[in-house]
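Progress note, sequence design subtask.
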C-alpha cells in the first residue's frame, strides 16, 4: 500500500507560527509522501494549488494529512488538523476577506474530512460548538533544542507572539514601562501578517520582528521570564518552549492556556494591571522564579513532537 500523503504548504512558509511549527515537525517525523508547492504558492496565492493541484497529487494515497487548518474540499481522503476556531469565534480580529473565507471554507473542510484533529480539549469544544464536528485531541510538542542555557547579561522579559489582536500585546505596555524603570527590557519576537488586524500603540515594547528559528532556543533561555498575554489560544506552543528552556512563565487564565500550562505557570487575567503586577512581582522574586522554572521543566518533559507524530499517525491510519 502507498504511504499517506501530507500537505507541506505551511511547512514551506518562512514565517514560523504554531501551524507552521506543526507542519514542519510532522513533515520531518512522519514517513509520508510530502507534497510541497513552489515557494510562490505558500501563502494566499497557494489556495488554488491546495484546492486544485493537491487533490490530484494525493489521489492515490490512502489518506492526505493537512496539518494547518486548510484542506482541499474536493478530496475524499483528508485528515485535517484544525488548531482553533478563532476566525469563527472572533471574526473582527481578522481582515474582512479572511474572515469571510474562513467562514465559508472551514465548515466544508470539517464536514467532508474523514477525521478532524485538534490541539486541545478547549479547541475540541470550540469545534464541536461552532462546526458541529467531533475532533480527536493530539497535543503539540517541544523540540529538544529548547533547553536551559545562560541568562543574558542585560535582563529582559520575553514574549513570542505575532502582532495580532488575539495576542493582546498592548496589555503589556504598562508592564514594559514599569520594567524599564528597573533596567529590564520587554522584548517581543514575532511579526505581523496582513490577514490579521494588527495592534497599535506598542512603542514601549522592544519589537524584534520575526526571529530565525535557530535563534529562538537561546532567546527563550536567556530571558528572566516569559509572558504570553493572549486572549485566545488553541494551545500556546511558546508556553511549553519557554518552560523547556528553563524560563518561568506568566500567561493568562483563558481559553487553552490553563490546559497547556498544566499548573506550571503563573496565570492571570488578560488585563494590563494584572500582567504588570505579575511580571513585576516575578522579576523581583528569585525564589518564585526558581519554583516556576522547576515546575515548567517538569511540565515540558511531558511533551515531544515524536509523541505528537505518533498520535496523529494513529488517527490517520484509523481512517483506512
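Output:
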Amino acid at each position: 500500500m502507498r504511504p499517506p500523503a501530507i500537505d507541506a504548504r505551511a511547512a514551506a512558509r518562512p514565517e514560523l507560527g504554531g501551524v507552521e511549527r506543526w507542519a514542519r515537525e510532522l513533515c520531518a517525523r512522519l514517513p509520508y509522501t510530502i507534497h510541497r508547492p513552489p515557494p510562490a504558492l505558500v501563502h494566499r496565492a497557494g489556495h488554488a494549488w491546495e484546492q486544485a493541484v493537491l487533490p490530484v497529487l494525493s489521489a492515490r494515497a490512502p489518506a492526505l494529512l493537512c496539518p494547518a487548518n486548510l484542506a482541499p474540499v474536493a478530496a475524499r481522503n483528508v485528515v485535517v488538523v484544525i488548531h482553533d476556531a478563532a476566525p469563527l469565534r472572533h471574526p473582527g480580529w481578522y481582515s474582512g476577506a479572511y474572515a469571510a473565507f474562513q467562514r465559508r471554507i472551514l465548515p466544508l473542510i470539517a464536514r467532508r474530512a474523514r477525521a478532524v484533529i485538534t490541539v486541545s480539549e478547549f479547541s475540541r469544544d470550540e469545534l464541536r460548538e461552532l462546526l458541529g464536528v467531533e475532533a480527536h485531541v493530539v497535543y503539540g510538542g517541544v523540540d529538544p533544542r529548547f533547553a536551559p542555557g545562560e541568562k543574558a547579561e542585560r535582563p529582559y522579559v520575553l514574549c513570542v507572539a505575532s502582532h495580532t489582536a488575539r495576542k493582546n500585546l498592548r496589555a503589556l505596555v504598562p508592564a514594559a514601562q514599569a520594567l524599564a524603570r528597573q533596567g529590564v527590557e520587554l522584548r517581543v519576537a514575532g511579526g505581523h501578517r496582513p490577514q490579521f488586524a494588527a495592534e497599535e500603540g506598542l512603542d514601549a515594547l522592544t519589537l524584534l520582528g520575526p526571529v530565525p528559528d535557530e535563534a529562538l532556543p537561546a532567546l527563550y533561555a536567556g530571558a528572566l521570564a516569559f509572558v504570553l498575554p493572549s486572549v485566545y489560544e488553541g494551545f500556546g506552543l511558546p508556553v511549553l518552549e519557554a518552560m523547556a528552556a528553563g524560563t518561568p512563565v506568566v500567561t493568562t487564565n483563558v481559553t487553552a492556556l490553563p490546559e497547556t500550562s498544566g499548573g506550571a505557570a503563573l496565570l492571570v487575567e488578560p488585563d494590563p494591571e494584572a500582567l504588570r503586577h505579575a511580571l513585576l512581582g516575578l522579576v523581583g522574586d528569585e525564589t518564585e522564579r526558581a519554583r516556576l522554572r522547576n515546575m515548567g521543566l517538569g511540565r515540558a518533559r511531558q511533551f515531544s513532537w515524536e509523541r505528537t507524530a505518533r498520535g496523529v499517525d494513529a488517527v490517520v491510519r484509523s481512517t483506512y
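The longest helix spans residues 96-112. Work on this subtask will continue into the next period as scheduled.
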